[in-house]
Amino acid sequence: MRRLIYVPFDQLNLDYGALKTADPDHDLIALVESNRMTTGRNWHPARLHFLISSARHFVNQLQEAGFTVDYRKAPTVISGLDSIKSEYGSLPITCTEPSSYRQTESLRAYGANFVANDFFLTPRPLFEKWAAAQKSYLMESFYRAQRIRLDILITDGLPTGGSWNYDKDNRLPPPKKYVGAPYLEHPQDEIDDQVAEELGYTPSTTWATNRDGALSQLHNFIENHFGEFGPLEDAMTTDNWALHHSLLSPYLNNGLLHPKEVVDAAITAFNTGTIPIESCEGFIRQLIGWREYVNGMYWHLGPAYRDNNQLNATRQLLPLFTDPEKTSMNCIKQTVTDIQSRAWVHHIPRLMLLSNLALITGTNPQQFLDWMREVFIDAADWVMVPNVIGMGIHADGGQMMTKPYAAGGAYISRMSNYCKGCDYNPKLRTGDTACPFTTLYWDFLDRHQAQFAGNHRMRQQLFGLNRLADLAELKVRAQEVLTGLDRGEI
Ligand code: SF4
After folding, report:
1. Which pTM does this prediction carry?
2. Which of 330, 352, 414, 481 to mutate to test the pocket of ligand 1 (most atoms within 8 A of CB)?
3. Fewer CB atoms inside 10 Å of the end CB: C or N, the chain?
4. Is 3-115 a CATH 3.30.70.3340 domain?
5. What are phi and psi of 65, to 5 degrees?
């Protein structure tokens, strides 16, 4: 063997990165299941099961392709690589550029040679070039440039269908008793069972752990859900847990799927004329817009970005995030219960329920970031740091988003069926049955009025705040709500 190629658990693809040019006769492939990864934090067991079982299935795929593979457990990745090297001799180490700052630094210090990370559609230097030319990092500008650069949904140099953005068509509330097409079940195999036994956890059949399963998930989305995805993409309902969302982010984020093949499948389906433009554009926006933008911003903003706390938020993580029985807020109880069973909810509950609640309660950004990293199956560092610190809780002072995503109960009531089964009333901001979101939304604006005063995008909200006749009463209720949330009694 002439070279050792180290494969992290989020780069499980033979066709990209360092493996693209690997040679079974001369390259030894190493995967390390580190204790740091498995027991270092309070990870959701579904997430651990998915990542570990996917990596072990990938070992089989590599071996079937003729590679010599060393998969071992070790306290850390570096100690695992040390023990592999002690057996095979001191081979030079090659690795695709890792997806996080921490792993990049640790492998760089170990002397690894990096191959450019092509698990995204935008090379890191290209994003830097875009970011360097911006006054503000508007995702919409990046997305339009991506559409043109990648020639996706572009007709004769203009956006296909006549518009760059169909968001206005994609904000339908959930229909009553909505059923829709079923989601795939992925039966467990021996490897899944073995990992489950080691973790002492019984996984659901929601998530596939190999390339074939990931591909069937892609095909199921394209065949059965893609057409209806767009209009309902922001809706939330207790009647249907995924509401036509693709469920592809775990596979995109661990390498089992590459964004290019997902884009190609979406555009091929759109070209048959069976997929409405608003569904196709909404999906493409997530893939070539948001996903690429967030990854680019992670690297652009630097390693210290995660420590931001520009709103000086000091509240300890609320008990309801780890125990849904600690709240009577139906929207949060349902969402946290869903997370506990599948390690997933779609982007609107993440943003407009969980992050919104952390934002308006003044929860410490780093504690909330840690929780979000731990509980979601697709929660890579590169996606959660910008999404939480920048987009979710505005802890960066507006570096990423021009205004905070704060909302009261009216938005949640409009976009979900949660409020009908709730002890609280989304229309009320004071009194014992006032919706905590509604009360705390106004209280949040009041607490940060001075900071937001110069932000023209907040003018309307602050105008509304200053017209409230019951602000003094609301502030008293807000303190009761915050104390109740801290105690797990709201
Ligand atoms: Fe959530 Fe408020 Fe609606 Fe209850 S009333 S479900 S707390 S938004």
Report:
1. 0.96
2. 330
3. N
4. no
5. -85, 5
